[in-house]
Specification:
mainly alpha, transmembrane helix, membrane, 2 domains, transferase
Length: 187
């Protein structure tokens, strides 16, 4: 049976994809209030889509993919939009930001190399990492505090290691895996 595109969770993920260019444009316009408003809406929709998918029994492989695409779009757009709006701050933190982008992309590269497509594991550490990264980004951009962002990047690195380990362990792609430990225990 074909998965319907227009479920509530999928619509929230598509909303994030549609907002990504607006986030970059608000950075280009150097307009902080729209930037943080759009970013906040994107992060709230990210938090809600998985919760609502489970609550409404609308989980699907398509939904997991859309959520992952929305995550990539959000993090790439916030990086570019923030650089356009706060170039000095972003340039000062460039090594850590570039590390974060690389670490964020590595599990996707591993999945594409092995499975010829993106993985959408949605592990527990991925959820924790998303929360910490959101807080870290706001701390960096609103309060010019770097350490919460550094903590988030450290957890992101652990997330990447776990996601790559999951990719290496699986024979075929799966979604909604709690952790590598759960995967190993199941096997």
């Amino acid at each position: 049976m074909k998965t319907p595109l227009w479920t509530i969770p999928n619509t929230l993920s598509l909303f994030r994809l549609a907002c990504a260019p607006l986030l970059v444009l608000s950075g280009l316009a150097e307009s902080a209030v729209p930037f943080f408003t759009i970013l906040s809406l994107m992060l709230v929709s990210d938090a809600l889509d998985g919760f609502l998918a489970r609550l409404l029994h609308q989980t699907s492989v398509l939904g997991a993919k859309l959520d992952s695409y929305g995550d990539y779009a959000t993090y790439m757009a916030v990086t570019l939009g923030a650089w356009l709006q706060w170039p000095e701050r972003i340039e000062r933190e460039a090594p850590v930001i570039l590390l974060a982008v690389a670490v964020f992309i590595l599990p996707a590269v591993a999945s594409i190399l092995k499975f010829k497509r993106f993985a959408s594991y949605h592990t527990w550490i991925t959820k924790l990492s998303a929360i910490l990264m959101s807080l870290g980004i706001f701390a960096l951009l609103v309060f010019d505090l770097s350490w919460p962002f550094y903590v988030a990047v450290a957890v992101l690195m652990l997330e990447a290691i776990e996601n790559i380990a999951i990719t290496l362990t699986l024979d075929a792609p799966e979604t909604d895996i709690h952790s590598w430990w759960h995967l190993r225990k199941r096997r």
